[in-house]
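Try it yourself: sequence plus aspartic acid, in.
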Amino acid sequence: MDINPIMLVHGGAWAIPDDLAESSKIGVKNAAKCGYSILANGGSAMQAVESAVRILEDNNVFDAGHGAVLNADGDVELDAIIMDGKTLAAGAVSCIKNISNPITFARSILEKTPHTMLTGEGANRFAEKLGIARIPTKELVTEHAIQEWEKYHKYKQSVTNLFNTEKVHDTVGAVAIDSEGNVACATSTGGITNKMVGRVGDSPIIGSGGYADNLVGAVSTTGHGESIMKVTLARLVLFYMEQGETPQESADHALEYMKNRVHGRGGLIVVSKTGKWATSFTTQRMAWAGIEEGLLTYGLNPGEKFQEPPAPLI
Ligand code: ASP
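Structure, out:
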């Protein structure tokens, strides 16, 4: 099958403040270019989504890897998933600490263990065995994350209030289809500011934070994790596509369903097995960028779609 490769990334669905708007757009565009250059050079969808998410994890504008938000103890606990649409194999990590690129570690779990997810201390022990560098927490933490955490403590905002607002943070994700028609997804996050210690969100949960199946397509989600898990958002989008809806109809339908059924908001990116793609969100903003046939499309506000001439490959 000869398919035009497509790369699509997001930088989280939430009320992105104006002072982070430009850097969020630049961040997603760079990640999309990196992933697309891999696809354009014949690389796999798995390689492309892992590399794009690594770029976003290394960018401290986003809540993943460097830039992750702080939990109730002021510590960093990270979640991530990567899934291969060819085999339905997934690798995931939850509640891991002191690692720069959880997405690469998640891929190692897929490739080097008989399991799908490792969590907490056991995961960190396996990371050590693999020789993955242990990063001091302070290297992952930004001034912005500390300020947010202090603000929530000062005003004693309850976790429930936070979770029901759009103040969920900028989880990152990617989906891709390569020239062989294989799809993949990857999602990585620090979760939600002031989350309980040990809280695992939707992001590393198969079918919630992401799903990829060559027979349908691939999805990466973001938003209120407790709501996303209730409706298994990523798989729900693919279910609607299986019923004959377009990727855009399915994305909008699934997010509307989540809003009406459990009062949760979020966003997602989706690519179909035939190379159609869509983005959608019910929060104020979501930074996203996609590249198809060298043409870069990106947006931040609802309905916004900017295009740039063929992106130089990086
Ligand atoms: N879904 C993530 C979580 O609940 C947060 C986000 O997408 O911003 O952990």
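One thing you can check immediately is this: Confidence is low (pLDDT under 50) at residues 158-165.
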